[in-house]
Write a structure and sequence with these properties.
Layout (H helix, E strand, L loop, with lengths): L9 E7 L1 E2 L11 E2 L6 H15 L8 E8 L7 H14 L2 E11 L3 H4 L2 H7 L3 E7 L3 H6 L6 H13 L5 E7 L6 H13 L4 E6 L7 H4 L7 H17 L3 E4 L2 E3 L6 H7 L3 E6 L3 E6 L4 E7 L3 H7 L6 E6 L5 H9 L6 E2 L1 H7 L9 H7 L9 E2 L3 H5 L1 H6 L5
Parallel strand pairs: 1-4, 1-11, 2-3, 4-5, 5-6, 6-7, 7-8
Antiparallel strand pairs: 8-10, 9-10, 12-13, 13-14, 15-16
């Protein structure tokens, strides 16, 4: 039985699954919208879903809220206002709650940024991916370079200076110079945060069935090194494998994931992770993926796609695959606080990883070396249950 002695922070994730068009690289639970979106019915379903989960989190305060998708900015500001009002009525929230909304650079979405802010959204995550029109076309994006610039400008104009830009590298045929041009364009828009991650080919995607020609490892490595140096020079400090932020603007919601905090997940296909100290267990809970099925069963037991405890043997690697993504790592004490296991459960794998030069030698922190961060899968392999 796991033993928990400290309160664990709790976040809320809300999934809105519709988008205008499915991108060929996307493996998220997203569905092309055909006709008007069922905004009112879906908000009703989300709030019923939340009410069903409330007994699992009585008395706990929400530390961050993230609305993802799909493209949740396709919903009207009125629908999001009703959703956020319903959340406030049902859960205690931090006074300075970070509320993030994922948005695409489309004209309709960016015209609503000020209204989203009035509804309570105080952080945007804008899916730019690239500033190269040819690359955007290959990626199946429906916006162009001009729309990407206009979206960032609209965020500033709406007073939403705390925004993230999603940017990808290792794109089909991409050179180092092309990738650095994307970085330079992003910097000119002055986002508070930048998510910069490599394009990977995932199963069950269009790119998996018809893979494009991607840059070789040497080119990708050069892109990473040059981009990191350029971002650092302009005040964007890397704090996670694919996350860079100006001082004071790290994403609280994602930090909660990486520090193995708890989170509720509501919406079609949403996942949650909840600690039950009384039972000495950590559960994963997920909802039905298909929007039509979710709408028909939200708030009922039938709407839950699964609910299962995390096996004790899997907890060390589950914790580390999140915590070791952080450049500065985490205090060693956090392992016992968040998993309910003694740190001794990580020995002798900790010692072996340190001897191999993959983990720092500091006994007070769980932190990779620069080499360990780049080869994180190799680090985690040493902690896999036999």
């Amino acid at each position: 039985m796991l033993a928990f002695f400290s309160p664990i922070p709790l976040a809320l994730y809300i999934h809105i699954p519709w988008c205008v068009r499915k991108c060929p690289y996307c493996d998220f639970n997203s569905h092309e919208a055909h006709g008007p979106l069922p905004e009112s019915a879906y908000v009703d379903a989300l709030l019923m879903d939340l009410e069903q989960d409330l007994p699992r989190v009585w008395g706990r305060r929400i530390s961050s809220l993230f609305i993802g998708g799909g493209t949740p900015s396709l919903f009207s500001a009125e629908a999001l206002d009703r959703l956020l009002s319903g959340v406030r009525a049902r859960l205690p929230l931090r006074p300075d709650l970070e509320i993030t909304l994922e948005a695409n650079p489309g004209a309709v979405e960016r015209s609503r940024f000020a209204e989203f802010g009035a509804a309570g959204v105080n952080r945007l995550s804008i899916g730019v991916q690239s500033f190269d029109d040819a690359q955007l076309q290959q990626l199946g994006r429906i916006h162009d370079r001009r729309a990407a610039f206009a979206a960032a400008e609209a965020a500033h104009a709406a007073g939403l200076d705390n925004f993230n830009l999603d940017l990808m590298f290792g794109l089909p045929g991409q050179t180092v110079d092309q990738a650095l041009a994307d970085i330079a364009n992003a910097i000119t828009l002055q986002p508070a945060h930048l998510s910069y991650y490599q394009l990977t080919i995932e199963p069950n995607t269009a790119f998996h069935h018809a893979p494009p020609a991607l840059p070789d490892d040497e080119t990708v490595g050069a892109i990473q090194d040059r981009a990191q140096a350029e971002l650092a020079q302009h005040g964007y400090r890397q704090y996670e494998v694919s996350a860079y932020a100006r001082e004071g603007w790290r994403c609280r919601h994602n930090l909660n994931y990486w520090e193995f905090g708890d989170y509720l997940g509501i919406g079609a296909g949403a996942h949650g992770k909840l600690t039950d100290p009384a039972a000495g267990q950590i559960h994963r809970l997920w909802k039905l993926k298909q929007p039509r099925e979710y709408l028909a069963s939200a708030g009922m037991r039938a709407g839950i796609g699964g609910d299962a405890p995390i096996c004790e043997a899997d907890l060390p690697v589950e914790f580390l695959m999140n915590a070791l993504r952080l450049v500065e790592g985490v205090p060693t004490a956090l392992f016992a606080e968040r998993t309910g296991l003694p740190l001794a459960a990580l020995e002798p794998a900790l010692r072996q990883s340190r001897e191999r030069g993959l983990l720092e030698m500091d006994p007070e922190r769980l932190q990779t070396t620069a080499q360990g961060l780049r080869f994180l899968n190799d680090v985690l392999q040493g902690f896999m249950p036999e």
